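During the reporting period the student researcher (J.K.) took over the structure-prediction task from the postdoctoral fellow and processed the backlog of single-chain submissions. One of the processed entries is reproduced below for the supervisory committee.
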Amino acid sequence: MAIEINGAASQATPRPGQCLRTFLREQGNFGVKKGCDGGDCGACTVHVDGTPVHSCIYPAVRAEGKAVTTIEGLATADGLHPVQEQFLEAQGFQCGFCTAGMMMTAATFDDEQRANLPRNLKGNLCRCTGYRSIADAVCGHGPETHGPDAHDAGADVSGAQSPAAVEPQSGQLGDNAPAPAGPAVVTGTARYALDVPADQLPGLLHLKLVRSPHPHARIVSINKAPALAVPGVVAVFTHEDAPQQLFSTAQHEHYTDDPDDTRVLDNVVRFIGQRVAAVVAESVGAAEAGARALEVEYELLDAVFTPQEAILPGAPVIHGDKDAVATRIARPLDNVVAEVHAELGSVEEGFAAADFVHEHTYRTQRVQHVAMETHSAIAWVDEDGRLMVRSSSQVPFLVKRTLIRLFNLPEESVRVVAGRVGGGFGGKQEVLTEDLVALAALALKRPVQLEFTRTEQFTATTTRHPFTIKLKAGANRDGYLTALQLDVITNTGAYGNHAPGVMFHGCGESLAVYKCVNKKVDAQAVYTNTVPAGAFRGYGLSQMIFAIESAIDELAVGIGMDPLEFRLKNMVRPGDHMLSTTPEPEEDVHYGSYGLDQCVSLVRDALDRGKERYRAAGLDDLGPEWLTGEGAALSMIDTVPPRGHFAHTRVSLEADGRFAVDVGTAEFGNGTTTVHAQLAATALGTSAYAIQVRQSDTDLVEHDTGAFGSAGTVVAGKATLAAALELATRIQTVAASLTGVPLADCRLVDGAVECGDRSVPLKEIYDAARLQGVRLATDGNWGGTPRSVAFNVHGFRVAVNTGTGELRILQSVQAADAGVVVNPRQCRGQIEGGIAQALGATLYEEIKVDDSGHVTTDILRQYHIPSFADVPRSEVYFAKTNDSTGPLGAKSMSESPFNPVAPALANAIRNATGVRFGELPIARDKIYLALRDRTLVPN
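J.K. obtained the following structure tokens:
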């Protein structure tokens, strides 16, 4: 019996054991996504005879004789399904990778199910949104409607002002313009890395990796013969076939920012899960069988699993074969990748002047990005001999540069394209798949695809760096800091990708936000034989801010001062030097605007209102077993990474009178596509709806450092604005020459130029420019300097059950200084997503590594990311500022909302219970045990 797919009978027959997900994708239904292949995430949800199922665990053969509906078939000839319209209206998505599955589940809900979304959406996970916009979409609430209870839904955003403080024009600065990709996302036609029809890649091969079972070993021999004997296996690549060139998987504008300690395939393995060999075959199944058949002989080496042990004399040396100067490893024989030792003033004198001193060791854990789309890439050699790579990457231009360096290729012979990217959070600022598919494609001259499993994401990509922070801080009775001293050890795992940057950045703004003449930092990034760490949202700041903001509360309690008042007395103000580890401030970092004081006030006032709401509703007395408390924390972040972050963009008038914007920045839920369209529309007097954004293709523009470090708006956006402003002048000049009206009297409006009493359509302008030989395409460039600072303050009100350790978040509030907010709805979504991800890292997420170096949390059901039921609605407020360095006054706001959440929650729990939790995650069992034993932190 045939399987009916979206109303048509399929002529294909499922293979034995094939799941419905892969069968549907083979028939071209690319809206069916893979997030886990374990039935845990819901990204693959489809309908079978009207019932939603997770197609990754549904045998395809069971669908024979049944009607299967995918997202591509949800709409009808009359238009979109209501749930698709609602997701568009409420913009219930960011990266969009989970959205099809979310909608397929929600499309079957009745009113009773919609009334209990925590239960009925438990099988669908989203890593980007924080779920508020999804709830609004599922329940049919538009962007300005937040349900019957305003405080339950979260406050409306406020403070988004254009420079002139006027009402935003449709699709321009300050408007809630919808994401341009919205219609494609809700219909399943948005194309991610592997969404390529089979007929476009004839002869496609599949690559699977043999990974090390040992934490530290030398490969003695590899016998390829058994693998090559497996039917369908085409080739096996080992360290003998790979380039000798050392590099770092980390990607930065300057590759010298990271140590060259990695090979594509190495003869020494340094963690369980490291690549050993690549098996390429006609099918995924054949490649997996070949990988299982490969015979590898190892010589086992001593291993070390904690950074504290790794820096002891006589510890196993992980990269002792590397030259320190050539590889930029600080002390390879001591397992130290990078280090900083600095003292401003004298902490000894500062502690002597203190009336209260707090000492504690704070620890943060490994956390995984869990982008719903796993790492993946396809490479092929085109008819002109160019290496073509399609990748799920935040940094396509840097990937291109790395491939050129690794394989010694001419620059013009490589092209890298990133489709829509299914989440990143820093994890896709690496080269983890592209080098392997390039190696195979160059050798075999056939297309090669590699897609990581969810287990590979957990065991063999990267995590957040675990930090151990020994902190000592002092304050006097007048409420001023007298000394801050930190001894920091970070665990970079087996390789040093991002280790120096995370360490230096972590020790930067976290300290610089406070005025204190006596500061001392000793920090080391250390190798261990564990899964590598890498870039993660916040880039070291969240770890350090957890410790410092916790200590700030302890100092305030110790001297008897309100913690927010203590912060107001000690935080930097315009004119103050922002100092951390150097006696002089960063010369290109300025107060482009300052809203930290507003953010503190917004959070404090919101918490006061929340307390009053609960009191008025009679909800403030939860019973004798409950303790309630409030806590807050602040954070500061430079708006652009240091030492240059570059973007080139091009804006052009097309023959149809619309505009095109070409940018290098990838879109992965960060919203930069919408921002580029709105900035260009504002400069060109039109609407974002009239702008087509083409992006993330190394053939489009000269260069773009990439979408990381919160640079999408303030770097690439500034380049787009510059190009658009120049194009506006050119268009007005052509219009003036056509009409004889002075240039000053020519004004761009939507679709035309008004020249006095005459309106000249843009199509006419385009034709006239061609005749005049005028090029109506302009280029914009920005180098990322000068830089500003952005601020976030978070506050919680919580209740803790003394008998069970249960934690209830009664109120969650964040205030952000994002400058002029280009798109308030989108920026609110970024903040809500950051809060949700940070709550997971604060309360339960942890990559656990056992005593032998194995990652034991290697599937989603063992690694708890927040589900719908886990995330409270947060109130989001914006400070009213206008930044002098950002485009039209805007600042960055994608990484920073994550940073103050953990200490704010820890401070609220401390305020409620008297117990200081200094180690993340603060799981319920830890709370229960601490309350049972009443273990108070000694001061």
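The committee noted the following: The mean pLDDT is 95.
J.K. will present the remaining backlog at the next meeting.
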